[in-house]
Amino acid sequence: MDYFKKGVEVEISSEENGFQGSWYAGTVVRKSRDNKILLQYKDLLEDDGGHRPLREEIDFLLLRPPAPRETYREFKLGEDVDAYCNEGWWEGVITQVTENGNKFGVYFRNSREQLDFRPSELRLHREWVHGSWVPPLEVKSEEVKEVLIPAKKEPGEETFLGNFSQGAPVEVSSNEDGFKGAWLPATVIKKLDKDKYIIQYQSLRNDDDTEFLKEEVDNLHMRPQPPVTAIVDCFKVHQEVDALFNDCWWVGVVSKVLEDKTYTVYFRGTEDEMEFKHSELRQHQDWIDGKWVIPSQAMKF
User: Which CATH number fits domain 230-284: 2.30.30.140, 2.60.40.10, 3.90.79.10, 2.102.10.10?
Assistant: First the structure.
């Protein structure tokens, strides 16, 4: 709280639907009551046709210092980046490099879309954790290398074409508060028209608790059950994982390795840290264009 003094430059996050995961540049105008801070946005205006910068009172928990940025950096396939779009920075992962490294395809997990960006519109993704940037600003000799590794296929396995068969194990996402970012195990009961399905959750019960909950879901909120790519004997610090909590899988990053194969996992969306047993974690994979993709193990907070 002491950092956010009058005139200090900051980045502001949003809790509004459609804006989660984005950061906007601004300046502190003054402190208000109840841990609120009045700030002025750098690029957002009061209305579409206006010329006055937007001012807003924000909880200080939604603020952070401006993220550092290398003067020049060669971005690589599989790196987590922030892409500048619509006056804000949005977190994504590089899934394509084109035009001799002068343009990059960036996949956004929240919206599940891919857009192209120039190097000047990208920066390495960093998290503000306990008053420090993770990872710190890079030095060339300490550059961290990452690759995007296609998930291993069984003999004869082909790229997924988008149709789920009856009885297939799947995972389902939700836009409801409290479940955003989570994947819930389910089974396909029936295919409907227009890429919709009736699924039955494996853990959620109906209101009278007589059976597992059934629901109609479109294929944009479904994916196959992730394949087991390898037996992981021990997860490492900074490794991206899925953690099983409240019968859902949530993506996080290992922040500490404890005794007895127990880990502390950091969740970016809520900035929470929780402890998990080894059996409650799995290697994180992204479902992109009908294929499973494994980010490198040297992921960031």
Answer: 2.30.30.140
